[in-house]
């Protein structure tokens, strides 16, 4: 059973913890506010970027644009000296609006259509990822270039990230050397290795295991005359949604140690964080647009649902915290979306005080893999963004 958090209780706790609840208060009390609304904080992007940079000082950040491609994310990351991981022509066009040098981007998609590949190469992207021989054949088109190629490998782990990104991509460790040899045959440059341990990965050990595997692979590649210059440790860094997790600094401590122990200084290390940068800067404000009692539960129909911002519940397997601004006894309730589909239910069994039509309910941490995967099914309005400092 999921619990919602009362804003009054949060304010009380904030007094002792010294946290700031003024933004939430303003969102609950602002007289007119058109919902659904996504409030995006520029400074929170910077805080996340700096925290990860501090936790992994040896690692350069290439923000993975996919969890949230709002231009504010791209601009803020660029302003702080960050770079980007892109996976499509659309993302390339967007990040190039900053004026970034395309040769510094990493195109991380291991399987690209020829049209996508041509576009990226034509724009000046130089670093690409592969995990299979068929993809390497496509490099033959670019005879006048020497593209930098990373091989993405997967490892087996006992515990898995919430979103398994090793299921669809990544070759086995045994396939890395044969793939590097194929790259050499095309005349392009085997440049390094990459992995993605899975998104919302709360197991630091999985990174450590992958870094050790990278070390062993680099050793084998050395023996075959390959010069490994880059290791890309992917994304996956976790966010505290409803389950407590360690701070990013403690989470990354074993990763820092493993990188220092296993990866020699001459190899540049990058990461492709998405969620960790994108989740917390965005807060979704919804209104209750209808209410009914069905089979002993109070049903609240909100103006955003599974087909829009809450699509992350489906595709990202995520549960977002719920903040309410009502007092009183909590009742077994359901929060459903605004479409005609019975499937459009976000929380079934939530304990929350009684709400009236027109009340606002707030969902923090809705910046990653939420709006990007939504639709306007039923031709319903999608939320606007409001940008705050
Ligand atoms: C290749 C690649 N890099 C980076 C990311 C971002 O991962 P995360 O949001 O877990 O940090 C993803 C997510 O799908 C990905 O596929």
Largest sheet features: 8 strands, parallel, barrel
DSSP summary, beta strand count: 17
Question: Which structural class do the helices and strands define?
Answer: alpha/beta
Which range does the strand content fall in? 15-25%
Q: Taking Cα atoms only, what radius of gyration do you get, to the nearest Å?
A: 23 Å
The total of helices stands at: 12
Domain count: 2
Overall residue-averaged pLDDT value: 96
Q: Give the helix level as a range of percent.
A: 25-40%
Small molecules (ligands, ions, cofactors) in the structure: pyridoxal-5'-phosphate
Query: What would CATH call the architecture of the largest domain?
Result: Alpha-Beta Barrel
CATH homology group of the largest domain:
Alanine racemase
Keywords:
single chain; 389 residues; alpha/beta; TIM Barrel; 8-stranded parallel barrel; 7-stranded mixed β-sheet; 12 helices; 23% strand; elongated; binds pyridoxal-5'-phosphate
Summarize the structure.
The protein has 389 residues and is an alpha/beta fold. 32% of the residues lie in helices and 23% in strands. Strands 3-4-5-6-7-8-9-10 form an eight-stranded parallel β-barrel, surrounded by four helices. Strands 2, 11, 12, 14, 15, 16 and 17 form a seven-stranded mixed sheet that branches. Strands 1-13 form a two-stranded parallel ribbon.
């Amino acid at each position: 059973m999921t619990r919602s958090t009362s804003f009054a209780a949060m304010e009380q706790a904030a007094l002792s913890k010294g946290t700031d609840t003024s933004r939430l208060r303003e969102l609950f009390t602002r007289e007119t506010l058109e919902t659904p609304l996504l409030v995006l904080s520029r400074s929170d992007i910077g805080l996340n970027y700096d925290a990860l940079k501090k936790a992994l000082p040896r690692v350069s950040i290439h923000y993975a644009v996919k969890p949230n491609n709002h231009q504010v994310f791209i601009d803020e990351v660029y302003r702080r000296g960050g770079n980007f991981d892109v996976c499509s022509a659309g993302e390339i066009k967007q990040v190039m609006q900053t004026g970034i040098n395309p040769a510094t981007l990493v195109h991380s998609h291991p399987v690209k259509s020829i049209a996508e590949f041509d576009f990226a190469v034509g724009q000046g992207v130089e670093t690409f990822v592969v995990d299979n021989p068929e993809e390497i054949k496509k490099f033959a088109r670019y005879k006048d270039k020497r593209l930098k190629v990373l091989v993405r490998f997967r490892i087996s782990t006992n515990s898995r990230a919430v979103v398994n990104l090793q299921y669809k991509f990544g070759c086995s460790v045994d396939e890395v050397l044969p793939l590097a040899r194929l790259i050499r045959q095309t005349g392009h440059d085997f440049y390094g290795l990459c992995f993605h341990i899975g998104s919302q990965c709360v197991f630091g050990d999985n990174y450590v295991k992958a870094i050790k595997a990278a070390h062993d692979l680099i050793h084998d590649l050395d023996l075959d005359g390959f010069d490994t210059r880059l290791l890309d440790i992917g994304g996956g860094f976790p966010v505290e949604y409803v389950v407590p997790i360690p701070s990013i600094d403690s989470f990354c401590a074993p990763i820092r140690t493993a990188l220092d122990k296993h990866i020699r200084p001459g190899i540049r290390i990058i990461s492709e964080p998405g969620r960790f940068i994108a989740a917390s800067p965005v807060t979704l404000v919804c209104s209750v647009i209808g209410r009914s009692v069905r089979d002993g539960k109070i049903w609240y129909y909100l103006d955003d649902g599974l087909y829009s911002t809450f699509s992350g519940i489906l595709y990202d397997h995520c549960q977002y915290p719920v903040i309410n601004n009502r007092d009183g006894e909590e009742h077994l309730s359901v929060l459903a979306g605004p479409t005609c589909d019975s499937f459009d239910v976000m929380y079934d069994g939530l304990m929350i005080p009684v709400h009236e039509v027109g009340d606002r309910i707030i969902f923090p941490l809705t910046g990653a893999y939420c709006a990007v995967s939504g639709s306007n099914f039923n031709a319903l309005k999608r939320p606007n963004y409001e940008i705050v400092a």
